[in-house]
What does this fold into?
Amino acid sequence: MESFTPEELATIERMSEAVRQYPHLRRAFIRALQMEELFAIPEQLESLKQVVLELAAQYKQQQEQLNRIEQTANRALEVAERALQVAERSQRTAERANEIAERALQVAERSQQTAERANEIAERALEVAERSQQTSERAQQTSEHAQQTAEHALQVALETRDIVNDMQKRLTRVEADVADLKGMSMELMARKLLPGVLGKLVRKLRVYEPDEFYRVMEEADLLSADDLAEVASADAFAHGQLRSNDTPRWFVVEASWGLGIKDVERAAQRAAILTQNGAPAIGAVLGRRITADARKRAQQLGVLVVVNGATRNPEAAT
It folds into this structure.
């Protein structure tokens, strides 16, 4: 750093004081120092200010674009995650149905093998009985041997009875597994058939999975926890506007291969819970067949009946 003598410092101080007291001398002082380029600084600062303002505007615009892109990406991610969840649920359902079908096939194969074994044992028992009869004819000399043979025949007959009983139990389990498989199949079919069935009665129809319906109702906060759990136990849900009077309605659907009174009453009860809590609803049952008593009960409770894809009482959707 350059050093100054006391005299030079005093001179500089006097010059600075003169500039402060007489501002009009500043330009002359600058020219005397040959520093005219300082006059251009205000213009340069103004130009720099304009550049900074333009850069700030561009940055704000780019930031808004980035925000929109981020929002779009987030929505796309939410849609993708939801699609993935639906695909995973469908995959799990298909895997469960496949496992049950395989189990039913295995049990059926074992049942067939058991039946064949029972037939073989029965034939064996018949042969033993025939031999026992032949032996009994010679029983005058070999009564003790005939007694043993008869006991053996009795034992074989008891074994045959046990095998047949076991086969009947296995067949009962097969019937239960097949019934479960039919129920699952009907639930999946209900969600597939609802647009075609209800589309004739309702506009702007949307079908909901049980978990989707649960989230919608939970966000609406219309039901208590117990009521929501009860209603969400139905097999399918739909919402739309009735074509007859353009009013919005929920549809609470119970699906079963064979529809009975309990299916009808459950649909009516769950629809009533929704209606009483500010979400007008109609109960509906869907299946392959329905008993006469269940059909009569549906008429009494105003429950919509769908059998083999056809609506039997469309007047219920009012």
Q: What stands out?
A: Residues 95-180 form one domain. Confidence is low (pLDDT under 50) at residues 174-183. The longest strand covers residues 248-255.
